[in-house]
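Possible regression after last week's pipeline update?

I re-ran a chain I had predicted before the update to compare outputs. Posting the input and the new output here so someone can diff against the archived version. Not blocking, just want to make sure nothing changed silently.
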Amino acid sequence: MIKREFEIFNKVGLHARPAALFVQTASKFKSQISIEKDNKTVNGKSIMGVLTLGASFGDKVTIIIDGPDEDEAIKAIEEFFNEKLKSL
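New output (post-update):
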């Protein structure tokens, strides 16, 4: 199991388009991927779940990945937060 914290640096947070892109990224992997914010944990492959977190600029979220391809999944999610999310 991999657990890593990320800060949201884009102005709109994890809403609409960024949330959809996160779900697309997470859905490529067999591992279970969850997002935790303020003691609320949701399925990272569910657009509705991700949107209910209300993650905004400056918020910190914890990504929890557990499964056979967790190493590849965390690399893709790190790229999402560190590169793709900043450009949205």
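Follow-up from reviewer: compared with the archived run. The longest strand covers residues 60-66. Marking as no regression found.
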